[in-house]
Amino acid sequence: MTTVAISRRRAVCAALMLACAPGFTVAAAPAGPTAVEVWKDPECGCCKDWVSHMEASGFKVKVNDTGNSAARARLGIDKKHGSCHTAVVGGYALEGHVPAREVKRLLAEKPAAVGLAVPGMPVGSPGMDGAVYGGRKDSFDVLLLAKDGTSKVYQRYEGKKS
């Protein structure tokens, strides 16, 4: 065995002995941003704004400027829950203007579900909240999509009167 190999072996053994010492803990390496992949129309401004909302909330977003309808069908999202963009995060589908807060909750709770949807394009939802809407915020529901095709309200957002 070479001197370098012996030195490496000693270093590994010393690290293992230290790691087994009482009271010793190893801090986990910080996790990187959670990856989101989205399919959208290349000309859709509200989709771009939703992507910016997700990035500002700590997600790393990969954008595909095509294939929204195909992605929705592939992921098992009923057309009645459709919106202008479809995404995947942590094995869950996202349809429409789902707030990052609810995506983080979904990933923490890990329910047995297809994912979340905000059907349509409600004004005041992330991406539909720009200056052009004059501060208007409509009420909307974030739906939890079950694997059997049903859905239930996961979170309700109350609008405000302008």
TrEMBL record:
Keywords: Signal
Range of residues in the leader sequence: 1-27
The keyword Signal appears for this protein: yes
Name used for this protein in its record: DUF411 domain-containing protein
Species of the source: Caenimonas sedimenti
Classification of source organism: Bacteria, Pseudomonadati, Pseudomonadota, Betaproteobacteria, Burkholderiales
